[in-house]
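fyi for ur records
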Amino acid sequence: MEQAVVRVTLSLIGPGVLTVFSAGFGATWLMARNRPYLLFLAGGCALVAIGATVQILYWPSDTALNAMISGLFYTCGVLAAAEGIIRRSGKSFGLGGHLAALAVIMGLLWYFFYVDRSLIARVYVLNLGYALVLLVAALRISDLRRGIVVDRVLFWTLFAFALHFFPRTFLTIGFSAPVGEAAFANSLFWQMLQLSLAVLGAALGMAIFAATASDLMEDLRRDRDTDHLTGVLNRRGFEALGRKVCGMGGRQSSALVICDVDHFKSVNDTHGHVIGDQVLKKVAGVLQNSARDQEIVGRVGGEEFAILLPKTSTDYAFECAERLRNAILDSDFSELLGSRRITASFGVSAADFGDFEGLYQEADNYLYQAKSAGRNQTWPQQVRQVSTITRR
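which gave:
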């Protein structure tokens, strides 16, 4: 009797570990509700823990019902956890995929209990079925292999956890299952299953927690470096990224475009600061929508914006500035300002060295020249003459 109590107690270590992880993921979601994948992970851990507890405590005591109920909890838990892992990367199995996997696994489980009763077949259905689900999840996030350290650790831990189902099942149970519940509970297969849940499951859980911590740190960094009015980078974030990009450029030139909304003070004086803020938001939106891939937009002053163009020549930077200037000129601000038009002046600089401060200073000097020459212009005017509209 004491031996049975010890065996059951040790078997409950795995579900206990999963319950702790479920609570941890749930608590983390309460602090970061913009990360819904945490709910899938919390639910997945909880469901697998319930399934294991049902099987370990043998409740309900009807063998068929116990097998089906525990199998349902196991399957739903694995699918939920796999969904949570791939949702972190912005992907999904989709409802159809989940329903298909659930139907196949539970259908085979039912068949090998009620039609062609075979414990060994049920063992292989569950273990190999879960291995395939997790392998598919690993393949869906295979791009993490080239990501940051925590992403690489998560991918390889998930991949190893999925693969371990194959050797563990083949080596511990082979092709003949123990006869009777007591023999199965004391079998090498069952003991190794509980050990793998406790050890490898914990390793996977820790890898996911590390990835989640990285996500939360990225959220904090993004919040710190984002201009809350316009949604683009603030000066701190833009300058930090600018120094990084220029430092990585080597001998390839980087360009910087600085623009200033013309006569913005009069917008605030005439229409109020609330409308002024809306104008800045719209200008930022125009710059974001008109910028091309790898062109980085930031708000570096009250009505001043900057666009960083990695690995770009001066001529292309001038063309980019003109494209952005015309995009602002052609934008409709009538809802905010009536018939008044919004224009902006631009300064452009490019260099083949990693001096971001020097690049910024030169672009700022050209911006001053553009404003002094009548505004709504791009300086230096080295490609073509820029037309202007009536100065206000």
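The first strand starts at residue 254 and ends at 261. thats all i got for now
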